[in-house]
Design a protein that fits this description.
Keywords: Glycosidase, Hydrolase, Metal-binding. By secondary structure, the chain is of the alpha+beta class. Helix content is 23%, strand content 32%. The longest helix is centred in the middle third of the chain and has 32 residues, at 360-391.
Length: 898
């Protein structure tokens, strides 16, 4: 019998920021890298060091030690430093589909610039693993993934029950995605520290290996045993080769080697048994007691998630589409600037950053990064808009009008009421004193008659003037000094119906009153909002009866605000044992119509709850003593204080969505606020947008293992429940946590979670995680029948993408006033990207089938371009015929050549 081989891989799991601010971790990284480079030169027996699968570590090191670039390059060339394939180690579920794709795209490219990356999908500490990982890895040419969470290991001698789809008897398994892509999966069953700090003295080594070897053998399917020599921020073990020599002396039946993932994967994958388990889809610790799924990180510091959504939508859905279209007139594309914006954004995407589970200083710096990335995105979008509008032919509009262009960059047809502010007249500071100009224009405003809006053919477009005022602004010409001015601005409201995706339409504002539309969407006597599609009856207590008019079905008593205590931490919600939920509709409520126009109606609901000001003082003691949250006995304080919730309920004329903007000034601590929508439907599963898929999840937990009273889940843009004939879709903006409650199959959306500590392995107070101060959240609800479910999915995604409006003037141009750049013909295809290929001019589009069970017929067209199948890292797929029928859960990347 051959010896068992023990592969010892040196590494350090490098959280860039976590329980210390970024620069504290950063400086320790410099020490680690310095030690490594020295060790590579002085110890020829030291095989290599795995640099945690993220290339950003190289950037971070060279930022401080730029003179070490050549030395780093030599270490990579010699195979001493193992790098890639990702840019950062992200949290899968809390960043967008495209952000996950760009992490691999940028990481692989930059790793290959250095040398040969380790082709292993490395997810050692990700808080759950996305179901599309197998397909995404295959698309990038990666055949294996390693992960630390999500699968329950049962051990070699324990039979895996057939219905335990998230369990494996081995640390090695197959992992199958919803599209049936399949890769090798490696679970760190004894964590990624099972070979950390190996002793170099006989007595200690015997004690160490007598425990570690059986632990590894309990789950190993082959004679190749993996020992991970490192852990979080671990300094390199400089004497590891001495420890290995001693181990070989003490255990002659084993062969211990200092190794790397390339060699280990080759060995173990060539020696796998036939009885491997296959795990399927997303891996979120479904077979555990439910306490440490860490899904509540999706509601920690919700302000981070909201800002992340804002920046992702800016880059993915506004800047890149506009820049792609503008290339047709400029011949240039901001590749470098976009790479900078994306890398800056992704620096906020590691699992301890976007999850909101670090110390306050970390998240303060994150907000700065978000702002930087967003401003780059806005600047590039403005440049693209200027380039496009300069070539859009507006010569058909009269000289006394003010043309403007509306862009729908969502990729799909959209009905929306758009408000925009048009500059009517300006006077530069060169023409007079600012104060005098301001008052002069104010007087002119009084003399203006009403306005109307026309299209390129002179047809009057349904619109209304919201307000007219005077304000300061300025221009920044590219070839001369800034130009400050005062201007008259007219804010108008347009009702845009069926505007094609990825298109623009040009209108103009003209002075003069036209026939007014007098219809209304609100009945202020009954406080009811209603259009041809839906009705929302707002009751005296603030609850809403929603009626789907197309199906003649009412969903009663929705918009329930629920408040409970939270004595957990940034990772895990924990309600006090004796705590009872408080509901806003049990407290004083007022209703007020605040907008009543032919196109949009809004009602303001104000509810004043009385809730505890915080947890009782015992919680502070329990946190300082590092009580595990399940051991805590603290309850909520007896002192009650007012908590006012203001909700603007909005209905637009041609929309089936009812929209909500909820605001409150949070001065309370240690609590959670959710909004509930009972569906009353009977169904055992629900659907939520995840990464490149709409995943079906069970409504009920495995009662044999699950102990947590709650079952929180992640979402991207929406969650849906439906039966055979009716359905409800709840959309959100940056609200990534939901739960489906058994009572009335209720969708519960978390809109605030306020806690006072980081949690995990010690006591790290986080006062800013209490989210004190003014907060505002947005969400929406829509309804469907048997044939229009996917439409509500698309509308939920569009809820996050605004229309873009920009001013222009009268001029001749080569672009039509109305034009669709890209057209999609499909009822269940979601577009996620339109951009130029990295470092080139071809267009890249990407989308996915919204169904995991049905084929998707799709036709995508771009004038003057031909489509070719490509992979996720934008390489052509050789000899691959263009598919117009996409299989269930399939991600399709197309490369368009002119």
């Amino acid at each position: 019998m051959s010896k068992k081989k023990v592969y010892i891989i040196s590494h350090s799991h490098w959280d860039r920021e976590w329980y210390m601010p970024y620069e504290q971790h950063h400086m320790r990284l410099i020490r680690l890298m310095d030690d490594l480079l020295e060790l590579f030169k002085t110890n020829p027996d030291f095989d290599s060091f795995h640099l945690d699968g993220q290339t950003i570590i190289l950037d971070d090191y060279l930022q401080v030690r730029p003179e070490k670039r050549q030395e780093v390059q030599e270490a990579i060339d010699k195979g001493k430093l193992k790098i890639g394939p990702f840019y950062i180690l992200q949290d899968d579920f809390l960043i967008s589909s495209e952000a996950n794709a760009r992490n691999t795209l940028i990481g692989l490219e930059e790793a290959r610039q250095w040398g040969n990356p380790t082709m292993l999908g490395y997810f050692p500490d990700t808080f759950g693993n996305m179901g599309q990982t197998p397909q995404m890895m295959e698309e990038a040419g990666i055949k294996a993934a390693a992960f630390g969470r999500g699968v329950k290991p049962t051990g070699f001698n324990n039979a895996v029950i057939n219905d335990e789809k998230y369990a494996s008897q081995f640390s090695e398994m197959l992992w199958e995605g919803p599209d049936q892509s399949k890769i090798f999966g490696l679970l760190f069953a004894n964590w990624y520290s099972n070979g950390n700090e190996i002793p170099t003295t006989k007595e200690e080594a015997l004690a160490f290996w007598n425990q570690k070897l059986p632990d590894a053998e309990q789950y190993a399917s082959t004679n190749h045993l993996l020992m991970m020599n490192g852990v979080d921020h671990q300094p390199v073990q400089k004497d590891v080769t001495e420890a290995i020599k001693l181990a070989n002396e003490l255990y002659p039946d084993y062969e211990f080697i200092h190794s790397n993932f390339d060699d280990y994967l080759e060995a173990v994958m060539n020696d796998l048994p036939e009885n491997l388990s296959t795990v399927e889809g997303e891996l979120t610790s479904q077979e555990t007691d439910g306490w440490y799924t860490l899904a509540n990180t999706s509601s920690a510091r919700i302000y981070l998630k909201q800002k992340n959504t804002t920046v992702e939508r800016q880059l993915e859905n506004i800047t890149e589409p506009l820049a792609t279209m503008a290339y047709e007139v400029t011949g240039t594309y901001p590749h470098d600037e976009l790479r900078y914006a994306w890398k800056t954004l992704m620096q906020n995407h590691p699992h301890d950053s976007i999850c909101g589970c670090s110390v306050d200083e970390v998240h303060q710096e994150m907000m700065t990064r978000y702002q930087k990335s967003e401003e780059v995105g806005k600047f590039l979008a403005d440049e693209a808009l200027t380039a496009l509008t300069s070539e859009i032919n507006t010569s058909s509009f009269s000289s006394d009008s003010k043309p403007f262009v509306v862009f729908n960059t969502s990729g799909h047809t959209k009905n929306q009421v758009v408000e925009t502010t048009i500059e009517w007249k300006c006077q530069t500071f060169a023409e007079g004193v600012p104060l005098e100009l301001f008052h002069q224009l104010e007087e002119e405003v009084k003399e203006l008659t009403d306005f109307h809006v026309v299209d390129e053919n002179g047809h009057v477009i349904p619109a209304e003037v919201v307000k007219t005022d005077v304000a300061f602004d300025y221009d920044l010409p590219t070839d001369r000094f800034r130009i400050p001015y005062m201007a008259i601005y007219v804010t108008v409201r347009l009702n845009l119906v069926a505007m094609p995706g990825m298109s623009w339409t040009t209108y103009a504002l003209i002075e003069g009153k036209k026939e007014q539309i007098t219809t209304s969407l609100v009945d202020d006597s009954t406080m009811t909002l209603e259009n041809d599609l839906v009705k929302a009856e707002i009751l005296e207590n603030g609850l809403i009866n929603f009626t789907d008019k197309l199906r003649n079905h009412t969903y009663p008593s929705g918009l329930i605000y629920e408040n409970v205590g939270d004595i957990g931490n940034e990772y895990i919600f924990k309600q006090p044992w004796e705590d009872k939920a408080l509901y806003a509709h049990d407290f004083p409520t007022t209703r007020e119509v605040i907008t009543n126009s032919p196109f949009v109606a809004e009602i303001l609901i104000t509810q004043t709850m009385m809730i505890p000001e915080s947890a009782e003082e015992l919680l502070d003691l329990e946190m300082r003593a590092v009580y595990e949250m399940r051991q805590r006995k603290a309850n909520r304080s007896d002192k009650l204080v007012p908590f006012e919730i203001k909700t603007i309920v909005r209905l637009e004329k041609n929309s089936g969505q009812i929209k909500f903007n909820t605001s409150f000034d949070n001065q309370m601590k240690d609590h959670r606020l959710r909004v509930l929508f009972p569906s009353g439907l009977e169904t055992s599963t629900h659907f939520a947008e995840s990464i490149f898929e709409v995943v079906e999840r069970p409504n009920h937990v495995n009662e044999a293992t699950w102990e947590n009273p709650t079952n929180p889940q992640h979402q991207q843009a929406f969650v849906n429940v439906h039966d055979e004939s009716l359905g409800m879709t709840v959309a959100n903006f940056g609200l990534n946590e939901y739960e489906v409650l058994p009572q009335d199959c209720t969708i519960a959306l978390t809109i605030l979670r306020a806690v006072g500590e980081l949690g995990d392995w010690g006591y790290f107070p986080t006062p800013e995680a209490q989210c004190l101060g003014q907060q505002s959240v947005k969400f929406a609800i829509g309804f469907h029948g048997t044939n229009d479910m996917y439409q509500t999915f698309i509308e939920a995604k569009q809820f996050q993408v605004p229309m873009i409006v920009t001013k222009t003037d009268q001029h001749i141009g080569k672009l039509n006033p109305t034009h669709q750049f890209l057209a999609i013909d499909s009822k269940q295809y979601a577009l996620t990207a339109i951009k130029r290929v990295e470092h080139g001019e071809d267009i890249i589009t990407r989308g996915f089938n919204l169904s995991n069970t049905e084929n998707c017929d799709v036709k995508v067209a771009i004038n003057d371009y031909n489509a070719h199948e490509a992979n996720m890292i934008e390489e052509f797929k050789e000899n691959k015929t263009l598919e117009t029928t996409i299989k269930p859960a399939k991600i399709q990347t197309l490369r368009w050549v002119k």
